Amino acid sequence: MGAPTGRALKTISYNLHEGRATLELADLAQVHDVDALCLQECDTLRLPETVGPLVLAGATQRNRLGLALYYRPDRLHLHGHELRPLRRSMHDRFLAPAHERLLAVRFEDLEDDGALLTLASIHTAPLSATNAMRRHQITEALGAIRAAAHGSAALVVGDFNYPWFASSLARRLAEQGFEVSHSDLPTYVRKRFRGHFDFAISEGMHIEKVKTLQQAGSDHLPVLVEARVKAPVPA
């Protein structure tokens, strides 16, 4: 693969707080000229098919708090998507359905020499679960994406509910070949909690910028990730 020829891929991850922030999406997409939106806590039955220039690639069907992903078709060519259940926490067992916690979509980047990559939206178990449970879900998700990617790059963004002991998580994932990237400011600042709940995990990507944006209707702040495919991932 040659040197990148286009601009960095712009992806926004946003937890919509049970759909309350859905009306913000069109402005976010336009103001930040994004190529993809990775969403959590969607009302998937009421999501529009398009958000400005972005098209719906896929969404969960049975989750109480849905996931969705939009993409810019003149930048990204869709190759298909996959929904993955992850290990269920106690919260998931009592407040079902909540098992579809990963939505992964495979693309060809038309502005980067046709580089293949997987974009994914993830929402791990809430703070009522343990960090060990969330680590298992994250590791399970990354393993599934890597197995399906066949050596191509991956960018996983979303609400990881992992604001504490994040450096330990980063070290564990680095040993497996993944990079954790946090934004410049906390992504959750309400109630008694404050921290980076929302961030990015990547493989085979060069992360140029991760920035926390402003919000209105959600208890989370959206996160903008600017990245490029770096190189094929060793098999």
Automatic annotation (TrEMBL):
Origin species: Kineococcus rhizosphaerae
Start and end residues of each Endonuclease/exonuclease/phosphatase domain: 13-220
InterPro entries to which the protein is assigned, alphabetical: Endo/exonu/phosph_ase_sf (IPR036691), Endo/exonuclease/phosphatase (IPR005135)
Keyword list, A-Z: Endonuclease, Exonuclease, Hydrolase, Nuclease
Protein name as it appears in the record: Endonuclease/exonuclease/phosphatase (EEP) superfamily protein YafD
Gene3D superfamilies per UniProt: Endonuclease/exonuclease/phosphatase
MF terms in GO: endonuclease activity; exonuclease activity
Source organism phylogeny: Bacteria, Bacillati, Actinomycetota, Actinomycetes, Kineosporiales
